[in-house]
Amino acid sequence: MIEVEVHQQLRAFLREQGEPYWPHHLTMARLVARALRLGRSALIQAGTPSGYHGRYRLSYLMPALLWQGSAILVVPEAVQQRLLMVEIPRLRQWIPTHKAIQTGDRWPSKDFEGLLLTSPQSWLTDRLFAQGRFPDGIPTLLDGVDDLEIWARDLLTVNIQPQDWDQLMLACPDQAELIRDARVQLTRSIFQHPANPYNCYLVEPPELEILHSLHEALQTANAASAALDGVVAQNENERRSRCLPETWNHFWQGLQSENQFTWTEIARRQGQFSLHCGPAEVATALTPIWTKQPVVLIGGALDLEPEATMYRQRVGLEDLTCIKFSPDRQNELIQLYLPDGLPMPNTPHFQPALMQEMRELLGLSTAGQGLTVVLIGDVPLKAQVGSVLAAEFGSRVQVEKTCLDDHGILVTGWEFWRQNQAVLPAPHLLVIATLPIPSLEEPLVAGRVAYYKKHRQDWFRLYLLPEALSELQRAIAPVRESQGVVALLDNRVNHRSYGHQVLSALSPLARIDYVDPGLFTQLDYSMFD
Fold it and tell me: 320 in the Ramachandran plot: left (φ > 0), alpha (ψ -120 to 50) or beta?
């Protein structure tokens, strides 16, 4: 069986190459091989970050190359380049296979029997919109599905940019004045919203009414024009919308869906705005695609439960094999400093107490060499903390920059850290100001919460908490490599019912009651032991 061959070849390769330690290589490789052989879908939580250097990738590359049939590997383009330039050539020198490997946004040909590497955007676009570029039934491996919801939501969101209004006027020249008036009304209404740190806002009912009225007027005018021209359409909607650009048609269809919500982003200096209509949940759209082929979905930390119940619900997965690997306690243990007694984040006393705690931590960390990262989700607070720390610690402090000193202090938001942690050294100290629970003040979060409330669902348990735990697990992953210190300064972990779930997401960990310079010195030199 392929499982036996994969196990033997990978074990011999790991021994010969002296690969970096990851304890689950052989188990995961057999699981992937079994999924390919049986054509049964699987969901694997590798328990290690799925970024550029994902340590588990050999575990699916070996079975994918030894598998006699065709397969599709869906990975981001940056990862594709590493696989093609580093991982795959090493394996092909070792294993007896001449399997064809290609990259592209569609299946090469009917006669192709090999491994195709494609991007998540190409594969999901084809599956979601039935473009027919990839045949059904071909086993498909998806790596990095921590971001699956983001990929799907981006593709399912319709965007109306300023130039699209010009396209609409060109398509409907007789209604140009009507379109221009609607745009002016929207501009006046949207720019009356008070400034916020996110530069975006949910579209209000009066603004939606302007868009609906414009759509109805254009449909009526197009219907009359089509009747005069003697055009016969298959149905009423096609006849009434025949002159409208495709982007606008998709946008107005989204406005009429209960699963969609609409927001606007503002460029105040340019005096322009863009409109966006996207799904509140992606499970409805994703559910049908999983039955078209066997899939193996691989991510780092998707869910606290081995069965990944919450994650599967969010992405529309039903019956499949679920496996969860835990971080290795000996090699990936973090030391967690979780002080009790700090004010709650939503109180006015929190910021002064936070700054005092940070000063003490950063002052102690200067005893050793290494990167310190300060994670702050609140946009105004991040800027304030960056300014205060820069005044005290000088040029060591940088706000969301990748050019840092060896003992630099990086003040960053969650998104910047997620996107750049693979190219930065593993921090010896990671300070987390507050849990990454999405803020209800952010319009896009408020829109999704409103959807859950409307359907009488537990929006905190189904949306906010899973998002926070996933973000938290990904953020601390580099600290596991250095077995460094995580300082979590959010007292809700100690006093809220969900605190035990936060601690489970951070495990394996060792609680420490205080931080001293000797701890950092020990961590910095432990790599030479």
Answer: beta
> Rounded to an integer, what distance in angstroms lies between the CA atom of residue 13 and that of residue 87?
12
User: For residue 424, what are the contacts with CB-CB under 8 A and spacing of at least 6?
Assistant: 371, 402, 404, 410, 478
Closest by CA position to 372, among listed 407, 336, 415, 419: 407
Among residues 285, 314, 260, 259, the alpha carbon closest in space to that of 467 is found at: 314
pLDDT higher than threshold 80 for residue 188: yes
Do 406 and 306 share a structural domain? no
- Looking at residue 92, its amino acid is R
SS3 call for 112:
coil
Residues 274 and 317 in one domain: no
Whether the model clears a pTM of 0.85, i.e. scores above it, the answer is yes
What pLDDT shows up at residue 466? 93
Tokens 């990862």, residue located: 79
Contact 485, 515 (CB under 8 A): yes
Confidence of residue 521 (pLDDT cuts 50, 70, 90): low
Q: How far apart are CA 248 and CA 92, in angstroms?
A: 48
Note whether 316 and 342 are same-domain residues: no
Question: How far is Cα 74 from Cα 330, in angstroms, rounded to an integer?
Answer: 32
What's the domain range around 46?
A: 2-139+293-324
Is residue 298 a contact partner of residue 140, using CB atoms and an 8 Å limit? no
- The domain total for the chain is 3
CA–CA gap between residue 395 and residue 443 (Å, rounded): 34
β partners of residue 336: 486, 511
CB atoms within 10 A of CB 5: 16
Q: Cα torsion at 263, 269, 270, 276 (round to 10°)?
A: -10
Tokens of 202: 């949910």
Q: Are residues 7 and 118 in the same domain?
A: yes
Is the model's pLDDT at 92 over the cut of 60?
Answer: yes
Identify the bridge partners of residue 266 per DSSP, sorted by sequence position. 273
484 with 338, same domain? yes
Count how many Cα atoms sit within 13 Å of the Cα of residue 307 in the half-sphere of its side chain. Answer: 5
149 part of a folded domain: no
User: What residues does 409 pair with on adjacent strands?
Assistant: 372, 397
Give the full edge-to-edge strand order of the sheet including 509-512: 397-399, 409-412, 372-375, 429-432, 485-488, 334-337, 509-512
142 membership: H or E segment, kind and range: strand 140-143
Do 302 and 43 touch, CB atoms closer than 8 A?
yes
DSSP string, 160-176: E-HHHHHHHHHH-GGGH
